[in-house]
């Protein structure tokens, strides 16, 4: 039996290694293509690009592993069935369960490896890659500027523009700049229809040339009262061309391997996530309690209390407003509407903060459970791929590749769908993380059962036989009647 186990493992490992590295290469190239605009032609050294690719490889490896196991299991068992090797071993008294037993142990081992990778290597790679991107942007501050919103990465300046275009995205449209270098608020504002970056690599200054714009500066002295500021003098002018030199020397001293961001939800191990979650839940509960207390006080609910029976006035009408005159009714209604409007506005103003805090807690919660659920995907997809390969009796890269892609896409989208629902608090974090496993597990059980019973994927003849038997019973009942 040891020779048989070695033969089965050898037949599985060769396609597994080949498919794993092919899929890994495809996923890395996809990630590189998405980041191509931020890396190509920006003066970034080849060493930094290779580091980026290495961290990307470590990040996508846990995704490539389940696909490799799924595809290689379909290919291996399909090839063994196609070449009648399964039939030969069965005739020798060896069952299918005994044949695939070494592959089951291997799938369990790879699931454990995948968990260790997700729990230690993946967070490390995420942390290093994110910090590398931030440091790259600091070396090239123009890369950090994003169109459509205010950019605050450059100290003492807030810069907004509508669009980047031209060679290396150095041209800007509709530029708005708040100069905060004087530490007196937004008192110096510059706007322009067009802008252009002129800085050279290694320069300590970010040079921005503006065209067709307007300059405004409100001259405010230190310790000036707020009301008095509107009486201070202001300078304003139109310009055809205006050049700004922004000091970025503090960026050039940063080490590219410097790590500042360490506590994001996908940068922590499962133990760190488990320790962080109670603190987040305590903070969230305190926030909810604070908002509830604020609502209680704003509505004056604390002033409502039950009168003793001895103080009840006889003759009161059940409709409370009917006990007051018209002017009092109007006053009561207006006060009630005013309190309701304030409460609604209060809720509307805090809705974003409430959802943000809940979403952060959900992300940590989902990441914790997903580490275990996604690790199990290696074993789950093996129990889908192995029986499917023995049923279809087809090896090679043709049909197995199509089936593997269809199955993994279904698994990946159901996993993403579950995580997104859990992130929005539509379902719990546990349900969202394990949704894909719950949906795919019945398929694994059905395929494994049919493969061990030597049944096809679809028993069409059996369906027709059952339909025929049903009509025969109906006809016999009619004749007996």
UniProtKB/TrEMBL annotation:
Pfam families referenced in this protein's UniProt entry, alphabetically: LptF_LptG
Q: Where in the cell is it found?
A: Cell membrane
Membrane-crossing residue ranges in chain numbering:
12-33, 53-78, 99-122, 368-388, 395-414, 426-447
Q: Which keywords describe this protein according to UniProt?
A: Cell membrane, Membrane, Transmembrane, Transmembrane helix
Q: Which GO terms describe its cellular component?
A: ATP-binding cassette (ABC) transporter complex
Q: Which GO terms describe its biological process?
A: lipopolysaccharide transport
- InterPro entries, alphabetically? LptG/LptF_permease
Q: Which domain of life is it from?
A: Bacteria
Q: Look up and give the membrane topology term.
A: Multi-pass membrane protein
Q: What is this protein called?
A: Putative permease YjgP/YjgQ family
The record lists the organism as Tenacibaculum jejuense
Which lineage do the record's taxonomy fields give for this organism?
Bacteria, Pseudomonadati, Bacteroidota, Flavobacteriia, Flavobacteriales
